[in-house]
Design goal:
11% helix; 186 residues; Jelly Rolls; mainly beta
């Protein structure tokens, strides 16, 4: 039996062939910068689509699909109907801030705890915390907290501007679950 001591240089030039990754990245960056200069810097209301989804009625204010110069933030306006209007319940790995444009209501937050072992173990509180809000307030949603927005007015619509950072998604944390659909307006 012979024992051979292997050194780093014994493996330095072992490869899976050749490529042009670096040159491609440089060219892609150059192409992107030229294209980026032409991206819109102002998004008009006519460019902002409405969507009826499991989270209720929303108007997209800024979204990656707009192809604008904004590269980091998604934003939408959430409409909550009077007399019991509510968003759906959902959770995501990114934090959110929400500005209350109009109305009053409250949020329900089911905070999460986890253990990091060989496998993540997630657990959400059974009883939500309630946070009351009104026009002019900001609401903070921690990462992966199940949450829902509810309008407490019987006569007036509530409108919320929801802002989140899409960078977390690009980092591989695009965990987004619709836990429960919004109730249908009466």
């Amino acid at each position: 039996m012979s024992s051979t001591i292997l050194r780093e240089e014994d493996f330095a030039r072992v490869s899976g062939g050749t490529c042009s990754f670096r040159a491609d990245d440089v060219q892609q960056s150059k192409d992107f910068r030229a294209e980026y200069d032409e991206r819109p810097k102002v998004i008009s209301p006519e460019m902002m689509p409405m969507e009826e989804c499991d989270d209720g009625l929303i108007k997209h204010l800024m979204h990656e699909r707009f192809g604008s110069a904004e590269m980091c933030v998604d934003a939408y306006m959430q409409f909550l109907a009077p007399n019991g209007g509510a968003s759906g319940k959902h959770r995501h790995m990114w934090e959110e801030i929400i500005f209350v444009v109009e109305g009053e209501g409250y949020d329900l937050h089911w905070d999460m705890s986890y253990q990091c072992e060989e496998v993540y173990h997630w657990k959400w509180e059974e009883t939500p915390k309630r946070y009351d809000w009104k026009r002019g307030d900001f609401i903070f949603i921690p990462p992966y907290t199940v949450h829902q927005h509810l309008n407490s007015s019987a006569t007036s619509e509530a409108r919320l501007i929801v802002i989140s950072n899409r960078i977390i998604k690009k980092m591989g944390m695009d965990w987004f679950d619709q836990v429960e659909a919004a109730p249908k307006p009466a």
